[in-house]
Design goal:
Layout (H helix, E strand, L loop, with lengths): L1 E5 L2 E5 L8 E2 L22 E2 L4 H31 L2 E9 L7 H11 L6 E9 L15 H14 L8 E4 L3 E4 L3 H11 L7 E9 L3 E8 L10 E16 L9 E18 L5 E7 L9 E8 L6 E8 L5 E2 L2
Parallel strand pairs: 5-6, 9-16
Antiparallel strand pairs: 1-2, 3-4, 5-7, 7-8, 9-10, 10-13, 11-12, 11-14, 14-15
């Protein structure tokens, strides 16, 4: 029997001579942090692998090594998933804009997490300045138009447009441009992010969304003396059959359609956020089609330094 060690994984190689006994020599592995198997025998000892005790030993050892290898693989997979870096992607869009459906489709693609090492936190924010040309977008709000305008001022743009994608509050481009999107996502990977977690997400008995939001400490390395904490409630999926305007006759599908964004607090340098929050839902909200997004942003709608998303389990209704 020979035990081989490579990159903290254990490989077992059996060399069995069926016709005659096998001479077993001393074999050791001494790499720190790894499992070690030592098979000791006298250098001239003859071991017959065809005996029942030896067969049992070989079967047991094989099963044990298979189990530990599986545990190692599982731990590595868990570690890789925990290392994913959150990237917040905001799409300013409208059902009245004929250029927007390709950008809506790109956002849906990003929502299924196609990029290794990144967790895409997507938001579809429908502006209202297209509503005057024949079709009123049912998901639009002047709030999102104002939010987009604030980004335009911050990023030095002379005007707003759709579809516009903004990544982590710092990069902007036409929302259907996958090449520019990839560049922005790669840049986002190089920026430090604050740890963030959403737990205990549920719907209260009075149509209130309940959750617990916590962040890591706002370290000096972020270069901020203070940051704001927000939560956004969004529909997982939405669809409209458009009968007028530029998209007349089309059925449009959307993902992560934001219904509200609320500031729930702030954190100062050296501090963390750890708080239960409540968000009142609009009457008639489909509680089986919701997600909650939390993010930390530089005051004045600047850089997003952390984000997290959690789907809402409507079956977990709080009793209050």
């Amino acid at each position: 029997m020979k035990v081989l060690q490579t990159n903290s994984r254990i490989f077992l190689a059996w060399f069995i001579r069926v016709a005659r006994p096998m001479k077993v020599t001393r074999s050791t592995i001494s790499e720190p942090g790894t499992l070690t198997f030592v098979l000791l025998a006298h250098p001239t000892a003859e071991v017959n692998l065809n005996t029942t005790p030896m067969k049992i030993l070989l079967i047991f050892t094989t099963a044990f090594l298979s189990l530990t290898a599986g545990m190692s693989t599982s731990a590595e997979s868990s570690s890789r998933s925990e290392m994913r870096i959150p990237v917040m992607v905001e799409l300013f869009t409208s059902e009245g804009c004929s250029s927007c459906p390709p950008a809506d489709a790109l956002l849906q693609k990003l929502d299924v997490q196609p990029i290794a090492g990144e967790e895409m936190i997507v938001l579809s924010e429908h502006v209202d300045y297209w509503n005057h040309i024949g079709w009123k977008d049912p998901y639009s709000s002047h709030f999102y138009s104002d939010r987009q305008s604030a980004y335009a001022r911050r990023l030095g743009l002379s005007d707003v447009y759709t579809p516009q994608m903004i990544v982590d509050g710092t990069s902007q481009f036409v929302g259907s441009d996958e090449t520019l999107a990839d560049k922005a996502f790669a840049q986002a990977l190089t920026k430090p992010k604050i740890a963030m977690r959403l737990t205990s997400v549920s719907i209260g008995a009075t149509n209130v969304l309940l959750a617990h939001v916590e962040t890591g400490s706002l370290q000096e390395s972020f270069g901020l003396r203070m940051a704001d904490v927000y939560v956004a409630v969004a529909l997982n999926r939405a669809e409209s059959h458009v009968s007028h305007g530029e998209n007349a006759g089309r059925t449009l599908a959307h993902t992560a359609v934001v219904r509200s964004i609320v500031k729930v607090g702030s954190i100062r340098q050296g501090q963390a956020f750890d708080q239960d929050i409540q968000v009142k839902l609009d009457p008639g909200t489909d509680t089986h089609n919701l997600r909650l997004i939390a993010f930390v942003q530089e005051p004045g709608q600047g850089r997003v330094i952390g984000a997290a998303m959690h789907t809402v389990d409507a079956a977990m209704t709080a009793r209050n």
